[in-house]
TrEMBL record:
The keyword Cytoplasm applies. This is DRBM domain-containing protein. Belongs to the PRKRA family. Pfam families: dsrm (PF00035), Staufen_C (PF16482). It comes from Mola mola (Ocean sunfish).
């Protein structure tokens, strides 16, 4: 799956980046770098790392800062995906110049992709890299003759195909119990989805349960769409529980005739 670039009122950049990470096997990691300002006017800076990509974002709330960071990461990943799709070299970044006194440094970074190059400046290397990436995305969009870079449609699979499949992972799912303690159901679901050709998206629910547990929804791009709920003492536990519920549902549907 590739990161989406067109506006989607149903998904935030945080959700899209998380979905991308699930499918790539590398979840984004957010770190609060700075919190400052008055109580009535706070400012937060968060970084997000996914694979080898790290970006930062600033906002008046933690969620807003994460949103900006995720959006910046998606722009860089967008170029990587386009390069892979078209057989191009991945974009390269290089610091061309550092100028200014220690308290007011300015960095100039160049982004190169095949025969194209774009330069941008910023008060940090990360800011300059982000700006250069954004300029390269705009350049690519212009060359491709469209206002957005589009990606292949989301994978989907009919329930009937799951019932008729005799592939390894789904056969194991039919035969084996789903009650083994400490099982990694997220990994099991990932392997099954790759084998059967559907996608899995995890959506965190902001509200905790009455007992104080985290909540999550797992959405499977089956036809019809499958949505299962999970809870846990942490986000990862909730994801694992949702994956467990989804596997149980798939097991029932794939075993019925």
């Amino acid at each position: 799956m590739s990161p989406q670039t067109r506006p989607n009122p149903c998904k935030t950049p945080i959700q899209i980046l998380h979905e991308y990470g699930i499918n790539k096997g590398s979840l984004p990691v957010y770190v609060m770098e700075k919190a400052e300002g008055e109580a009535h006017h706070p400012s937060f800076v968060f970084s997000v790392t996914i694979g080898e990509v790290t970006c930062t974002g600033q906002g008046s709330s933690k969620k807003a800062a994460k949103h900006v960071a995720a959006e910046a990461a998606l722009k860089i990943l967008q170029m990587d995906e386009l390069a892979l799709q078209r057989g191009w070299h991945l974009p390269e970044y290089k610091v061309l110049m550092e100028a200014g006194p220690p308290h007011m440094r300015e960095f100039t970074v160049i982004c190169r992709m095949e025969s194209l190059s774009e330069k941008a400046a910023g008060n940090s290397k990360k800011v300059a890299k982000k700006a250069a990436a954004e300029k390269m995305v705009a350049r690519l969009q212009s060359l491709l003759g469209c206002s957005e870079i589009t990606w292949p449609p989301k994978l989907s699979v009919q329930m009937e195909n799951l019932r008729n499949s005799s592939a390894e992972k789904i056969s194991l799912l039919r035969r084996n119990p789903l009650s083994i303690p400490n099982s990694d159901y997220i990994q099991m679901m990932l392997e099954l989805s790759k084998e059967q050709g559907f996608e899995v998206t995890y959506f965190d629910i902001d509200e905790l349960t009455v007992s104080g547990q985290y909540q999550c929804l797992a959405e499977l791009s089956t036809c019809p769409v499958t949505v299962c709920h999970g809870t846990g003492i942490s986000c990862s536990n909730a994801h694992n529980d949702a994956a467990h519920s989804a596997l149980q549902y798939i097991k029932i549907m794939a075993s019925s005739k």
